[in-house]
What we know:
This protein is of the alpha+beta class. The protein has helices spanning 2-11, 48-55, 66-73, 82-85, 107-110, 116-120, 148-159, 170-175, 185-189, 201-205, 228-232, and strands at 127-129, 140-142, 192-195, 215-218, 235-242, 245-252, 265-273, 279-288, 298-303, 309-317, 325-333.
Amino acid sequence: MRSWILLAALTLPCAREDWKLEAVRPLADGRPVENDKWHELSCAGCHENVAREWARTTHATAWLDPRYQEELKDKRKPEACHNCHIPQPLSGFEPGTKPKPRDAAQAAVAHMGVDCNACHLGTQGEILGPVGAQTKAHASKKSALLTEEGQSQLCIACHATNVGPVIGIAKDFVETSQWEKGKSCVGCHMQAIEREFVSDPASHEKNGDPAYVKRAGRSHELQTPRDPGFLARAFEVSASAAGAGTRVTLRNACGHRVPGLIGREFEIEAELLDAQGRSVDKQTLVLDHTRSLGVDEEAAIEFSKTGAKVRLRGLHQSPGFEKRALFLEIEIPVAR
Ligand code: HEC
Ligand code: HEC
Ligand code: HEC
Ligand code: HEC
Ligand code: HEC
């Protein structure tokens, strides 16, 4: 049995690279931290665990977002903004097209933003999922949209278009063949977890459903660049001696460019230190949407002097931040 599993792993076309992720801790940026109406969702009665995770994301607040509402005010056709902020279910959508919008007049539905149905409701009223676990609660079907490459297609449907301050960074993911290289949106933005798919397994046995097992799933709490710990993972840093000087490089490790939103800016301060830790020289690098880093692209900071170590400090400005936030603070040795 064991050798069979090993063989299966070896013959897979490409191993998925999943980031090991920490709990999400986004900084306050003037948006509501949670959609506190999550319990109104019919799904929440059984999937409270998932609903609470989702409620703390900008998917849940995509309509409530005060910056979104502010921008709608002076739009002659605000409906044109609704496609991705209050979408109809994406099942059956044509790749390369935008999702269809829900009717904003149905305010009771609008305030749920990118809701559960957007990603999970099938064209026949069935629930699409990664497993197809059978239950008396609803028809479930394993779907290409919730597994493998389809999961990324789901994200790309809304994240590949430039609109207002938003840069369609999912285009980078497609153009640089990230899926073929073992990367996925979900692999970096939704932490892999083992759990029961429902919050209260005991209550379901009364419905005549089979006993619940823990299954492999994903936290719905999106990892966001407003979280300093997650943002730091965007850059792989190194320092090495280069002739009579020193070169510090930052490589973009994301599946798309950084940053991907107008109004976001990184200021990276590099300080060259000697063996005693005394400052030798200092330089600053700024990245924003006009000077963004493409996938695997490197930015270099060149010093004309040599040193033993480099101290790096990174500050992040994002729309709504009161002040710039520290997301990177490390010392790295200079490789010879
Ligand atoms: C094709 C899908 C799509 C459409 C259509 C769309 N948006 Fe968005 N919008 C997004 C995505 C994706 C983000 C998140 C981007 C990010 O966080 O980098 C976003 C984020 C935003 C934000 C928040 C930016 C911030 O500061 O965090 C605002 C404001 C916004 N959109 C306004 C609009 C307006 C106004 C329209 C209509 C002109 C519109 N959107 C239409 C996909 C869309
Ligand atoms: C009455 C309880 C109940 C309600 C309400 C409910 N579900 Fe479920 N759901 C279940 C049970 C039970 C399972 C099977 C879990 C298992 O076997 O691990 C399930 C499974 C799922 C799955 C996994 C499907 C798969 O591929 O295995 C998804 C996705 C899902 N539900 C989404 C939803 C959404 C979205 C809603 C709201 C529109 C919803 N559910 C409403 C009880 C419910
Ligand atoms: C129906 C459209 C839609 C789909 C599908 C979608 N998104 Fe989004 N996403 C949005 C919108 C709209 C926003 C921004 C809302 C706002 O800021 O007002 C957003 C925001 C985000 C953010 C920024 C989060 C933050 O807190 O700054 C990330 C990351 C993200 N989405 C990842 C994903 C991933 C991964 C998937 C696929 C599993 C996905 N999205 C699918 C529309 C979508
Ligand atoms: C932006 C798309 C998106 C939205 C919105 C979304 N989901 Fe999911 N959901 C996914 C993806 C992708 C997976 C598959 C994860 C995997 O690979 O196991 C998933 C998996 C699930 C599962 C299986 C359990 C697990 O832990 O993976 C359940 C149950 C579920 N979703 C319920 C919900 C409910 C309830 C909501 C609303 C509160 C919701 N989802 C909103 C994309 C979404
Ligand atoms: C290898 C890991 C990785 C992959 C793959 C990946 N991301 Fe990201 N993503 C990150 C990191 C790290 C950040 C934070 C850096 C930044 O500010 O852009 C980020 C930022 C974002 C943002 C916020 C952009 C901004 O500037 O506001 C969105 C939206 C997003 N990702 C969506 C996606 C979608 C959609 C996909 C798949 C098409 C995807 N990501 C694939 C790691 C990844």
